[in-house]
Predict the structure.
Amino acid sequence: MPLLLSAPVNRRSWLARFRRVRGASLAMCESLSPEEYRLQPCEEVSPPWWNLGHTSWFFMRNLLVPFGGQSEPEDDPYEYLLNSYYDSFGSRLPRAARGLVSRPTTDEIYTYRASVDRRMEELIATLDEERFEEFAEILAIGLQHEQQHQELFYTEIKYILAQNRPELRRPYTSCRGEGRTAEAPARRYVPFEGGLREFGHLDEGWCWDNELPVHRFFLTPYSLANRLVTCDEYLDFMADGGYANPLLWLDNGWQAAQREAWHAPLYWEQRYGGWWIWTLAGMRELIGEEPVCHVSYYEADAYARWRSQTFAGEQGARLPTEREWENAARIVGVPASAGPNSFPAGVPASAGSASFLDSGRLHPAAAVGVPASLGPEERLAIAQLHGELWQWTASYYEPYPGYRPFAGALAEYNGKFMDNQRVLRGGSCVTPRDHYRLSYRNFWPSTTRFQFTGIRLAQDAT
Ligand SMILES: [Fe+2]
């Protein structure tokens, strides 16, 4: 296993971090009703009870068992119930059945979580010094895994709560998630030179195996849109028959759109003569300047094709590759005026105004307007690169050249999914801020809509 570990460096720091991350998972579930813990409205959306249990099982299976932590009789059934996709650990509850079982009860899952926490804290305090470095590398993975599931939780509970009749829906949060609704900056494309560049996790600190190794790749000149596509801009695509024109769509996307009757992004509903959207703060009117979200790769791709065919000066508009996105993110967005960088390594200081989970907004914010008189540095400003919405890229999720997966069963964590999925970059309004890095590679099937996904366009240089 590559040594990816950085701080924390001592047991007390590990313990504090363990408690903080585990506590955040409990806090996000505080407002749930008993029913809301159990529902699985579609296979991709796991119920919260399972999310809480699975993240605990991960520590049990990958740390308590191999490092001699205390075992309990209660652990046995959870091997089957809470294994997500690790074939090397044996058979498991089918993913689509997580909402069908009434046992364990939610109370039993909380008891199990507390038991795992107690045993983990004991192991962190008492494990032999010779094995602690190896232990800590897997502990880091377990904590990052838990944070991934925290992000998943917000997308899952949004989908779960949306299933109710509109008049009976309750919001998850009272935070309205609005603000920063100033007029969106005029759309521009920011040019980037081509050349041989380095990609991957170039910075200090921890990263997933799929962000390594650092490697070189040749880019041809291109340009990247200065902000995400807004709801108003997406409405133009809809009004122009975007969902009814097969010439704009990849075939698999067209088939999915017909099969699932897509006619707008997920969570858009027509009411009182206008468009309303379901947010974690409830239903509200669409705000045109906000970035369009909850679109699949196929919708993003069709939108790009429509822009290419519709607007002079945008011929060839397309989604960026992940390396075009990464190169741009390394070059721009670090103005000297940005001030101290409070982000972990690899996240530009300019992301300070972005919406990550920590902002509490739970909804993407509109781009902040750029002054009419632009200095040379501001002309290169690209809004909403980090936080707000995961941005679909045209890149298939593939291993970087020389990729080496994590050792043992954790080789299943990322590597086996490098097939038939697309990479997304940038983090979102429900990504924990200290979980994110510039080199972070998210990935989902092209039909995915329930994640916080948005659209940024690119063009070849003319
Ligand atoms: Fe997981």
Observations:
- Confidence is low (pLDDT under 50) at residues 1-5, 334-345.
- The radius of gyration is 22 Å.
